[in-house]
Design a protein that fits this description.
The structure is a single chain. The protein has 10 helices and 13 strands. The protein is of the alpha/beta class. It has 2 domains: 3-101 and 191-270, HAD superfamily/HAD-like (Rossmann fold), CATH 3.40.50; 104-187, Putative mannosyl-3-phosphoglycerate phosphatase, domain 2 (Threonyl-tRNA Synthetase, Chain A, domain 2, 2-Layer Sandwich), CATH 3.30.980.20. The chain has a 9-stranded mixed sheet, sandwiched between helices. The structure holds magnesium ion. Magnesium ion (MG) binds at residues 9, 11-13, 217-218. Magnesium ion binds at residues 9, 11-13, 217-218.
């Protein structure tokens, strides 16, 4: 039987608008009982994801900042020399870390250049903890964690939202990528899909054939959904699914955020017992 892997987004998917995963608990318990790796793949930072891993009692690899970094618990995989070299794997603070994303300092510099060109953009690095907390609804502690960034910078446009198309083409011309949303993100040549593909390969090397499931709610999840066997979109807070995906076999799961997450995982796992 193929081993199952579950990749999941956090905000709006496993977490509801008040950052709770309560409604997904029965499905989370089942994944734990079956020893199914649950791999968090989020735009959140390493520190934020560590906080949720602890609450979820999760000891599996995770992907931070929209695919910027892959964190493998040290020794989780026996990494081949070729992988170590290709992704410049470093081992620190208990992780083997693969860097796929840009350097944070380069992203901060790029936002500065955009401001010089008249775009009123402000990144998390320009904001106080209190501002990030007010904008995101995070507690001050969590907002502090959200500011500790390595590979990706969320930003807002203060007073020229009408110029977003020009702004995003400037970002492209500077050689960076972006995602759009309640917060826009500027990042390097990394996305959730590239990172998920690498993690799937590592599991295949270790376990043989795997069946990969991924759950998301937003455009930044599309690249991840495109790389797995069973892609799932949960409903957003307005009760709709995000439009515009081009993932052919995606499951449009009924249920908002963690409610949809739980239903989808219970149903899919009941088919693979
Ligand atoms: Mg999300």
């Amino acid at each position: 039987m193929k081993r199952v892997l579950i990749f999941t987004d956090l905000d709006g998917t496993l977490l509801d608008s008040s950052y709770s995963f309560h409604e997904a608990l029965p499905a989370l318990d089942l994944t734990r009982e079956r020893g199914i790796p649950l791999i968090i793949c989020s735009s959140k930072t390493r520190t934020e994801i560590e906080h949720y891993r602890e609450r979820l009692d999760n000891k599996h690899p995770f992907i931070s900042e929209n695919g910027g970094g892959i964190f493998l618990p040290e020794g989780y995989f026996d990494l081949e020399a070729e992988i170590v070299e290709r992704y410049a794997v470093t081992t620190e603070e208990g992780y083997d870390m693969l860097r796929l994303g840009a350097r944070y300092s380069d992203l901060r510099r790029a936002l500065g250049k955009l401001r010089d060109k008249g775009f009123s953009v402000r990144g998390f690095g320009d904001m106080t903890v209190e501002e990030v907390a007010a904008l995101t609804g995070l507690s001050p502690d969590e907002a502090g964690m959200a500011k500790k960034r390595d590979f990706d910078e969320p930003f807002v446009i203060d007073d020229n939202e009408g110029m977003t198309d020009e702004l995003f083409s400037e970002i492209r011309e500077m050689g960076f990528h972006f995602t759009r949303g309640a917060f826009h993100h500027i990042l390097g040549n990394s996305d959730k899909g590239r990172a998920v593909e690498i993690v799937i390969k590592l599991y295949q090397n270790a376990l043989g054939d795997v069946k990969s499931i991924a759950l998301g709610d937003s455009p930044n999840d599309f690249p991840m959904l495109a790389k797995v066997d069973v892609p799932v979109l949960v409903q957003r807070t307005d009760g709709r699914h995000i439009q515009g995906h081009n993932v052919p076999n995606v499951i449009l799961q009924e249920g908002i955020g963690p409610a949809g997450w739980g239903r989808a995982v219970l149903r899919i796992l009941s088919g693979v017992t």
